[in-house]
Amino acid sequence: MPLTLPPLSLYIHVPWCVRKCPYCDFNSHKADETLPEQEYIEALLADLQRDLHWVQGREIQSIFIGGGTPSLLSVQAYEKLFEGLKEKLVFSQGIEITMEANPGTFEAEKFKGYHDLGINRLSIGIQSFQDHQLKHLGRIHSASEAIAAVKLAKNAGFTNFNLDLMHGLPDQSLEDALNDIQQAINLGPTHISWYQLTIEPNTEFYKYPPKLPQDETLWSIQEAGQTLLAQHGFNQYEISAYAQPGRQAKHNINYWQFGDYLGIGAGAHGKITVIKTPAEQSTILRTSKTRLPKDYLNKNKIHSVNSEEIQLEDRDLEFFMNALRLYQGTPFEVFEQRTGLSISHCKKKIESAIEAGLLEPGNEIKTTPKGQLFLNELLEKFL
What we know:
alpha/beta; Arc Repressor Mutant, subunit A; 16 strands
């Protein structure tokens, strides 16, 4: 079947943090006292210029500025960045532009400037409202600073914002976890990302593991937390994403539905569909950029480290690894348009998952409550 160009998003990576958190395995690096803002913005725009041939006439539906800590950069730096972006790209009328931000007072004071530039959604990394847990997690802010930052963001005009929260923290009780959720709800976000702390390789926690709650406590936290969020109108639409009606993250939904996204910045990843002439073979690519900031800023080096084709026989698994995370369901036609495969290619696998009670029957790919609980078992059906 012919591939169809999916919606296109843009991911921008800012690689610096005040310090590296012990649980973090993202591409982040301790910032010096002075950041090379001008040089980095110039590198981002040069990086984008090289990727423009992959836009293929599409508007940008969403932008996500992640990190690291993007809010370390000044308003003036982002002003220059957005001037360059708008010269090279066409923004859709209802574009969602999200910036990750940390609650430190210094960054929070910039919220008004970010909002005036057109950034219309914040994702604030709070993780917990308990000071002792924040200390365990290596965070540089306090609970009171987190609350103040949210209030500053609202005063700056942000009506759409996400709060990041973790659960399953060292020695965390059910009561403590629910108190964190309730405090977040009280601040009036439109979206809450609530996810369990996991110990990842190449992190400090992997070398020196903290004492985490027992499985029985983790299960109780998960069930009670989901119930509390639902009671306050936060519908779970993905494994760790809960949103008020109509406030799901557009950028993340595009990602999970196998949409396209350009990735610029140190260590940024992208996924691009390339439509060629009938005589040529259309393809899907995974891209990645130079990881270390010093190399990314080196004008003598090429930003693109890797551009790897997703082979035809792997496209179905790549699609399902993303789409099965979504609880709202993905129509079969989206699978066909974005993989170039007929849904009949997966018929036996889908039927097996339905018989096991992991997928709902019908004309869309939708996990059952059981499938949501046993996602790894469900994914094994598509290996």
